[in-house]
Amino acid sequence: MGLFRNDPVDLSDERLMELVTRGQERAFAVLYDRYRRKLLTYFHRMLWQDHERAQDFLQELFTKIAQRPESFRPGRPFRTWLYSVANNMCKNEYRRMAIRTDALPHLKASANHTAQADGGGQVDRDQFNARLGEELDKLDPDHKAAFVMRYEEDLSIKEIAAAFGISEGTVKSRLFYTVRKLAAALPEFDPRPQPTSPATGR
């Protein structure tokens, strides 16, 4: 039963990781395809909207998985483990660069006012995302990560708690604090991410 009877696309993450530890390259490719875009978005938001750096971190994360798949312990949900590894990579990068979240370079003055009448939905959405990124970069990294995981990566409170190794109550507290702070900084916007595609209803 060494090979797949069918394509492994429908297998669970955890089952795919079992196969990755046994050297199944196709299983690794399925996991990569399943999480590549989500993690690229996560790294992009967490690493100062630096697309090149986000790409590097994505490749580094999956290289680690390919080289040491046994670091994933069976019995743990793969998705929460994956985001905890990604979050630790970001924290290490913050330390390495000696970044303090409240010591951002400069806020773009041009983003301080809303061009509501002039540009329509896409302009508002782009402006929102730019300003949201600036405000998130000023937050404590753990609060920022919790917000991105919940509202941009759609992880549940339970999954975020597992990824951080903290209680669900602590996650809720961080989210409440972060949303309240963002609402004060961005009064003209709902502080949660806007839909990326106007064509879809979501």
Helix content: 55-70%
State mean pLDDT (0 to 100 scale). Answer: 80
- Give the beta-strand count: 0
Radius of gyration: 19 Å
- Work out the strand percent: under 5%
Structural class: mainly alpha
- CATH architectural type of the largest domain: Orthogonal Bundle
Sum up the overall morphology in one term: globular
Count of domains = 2
Sketch the topology as an H/E string, one letter per element: HHHHHHHHH
* Main sheet makeup: none
What gap, in angstroms, lies between the N and C termini? 41 Å
Structural summary, described in words:
The protein has helices spanning 13-21, 25-46, 51-67, 78-96, 116-119, 121-136, 141-152, 157-164, 168-185. It has 202 residues and is mainly α. The protein folds into two domains: 8-100, RNA polymerase sigma factor, region 2, helix turn helix motif (Rna Polymerase Sigma Factor, Chain: A); 111-202, Winged helix-like DNA-binding domain superfamily/Winged helix DNA-binding domain (Arc Repressor Mutant, subunit A, Orthogonal Bundle). The chain is globular. The chain starts with 12 loop residues before the first helix and ends in a 17-residue tail after the last helix. The model is unreliable at 99-120 and 197-202 (pLDDT under 50).
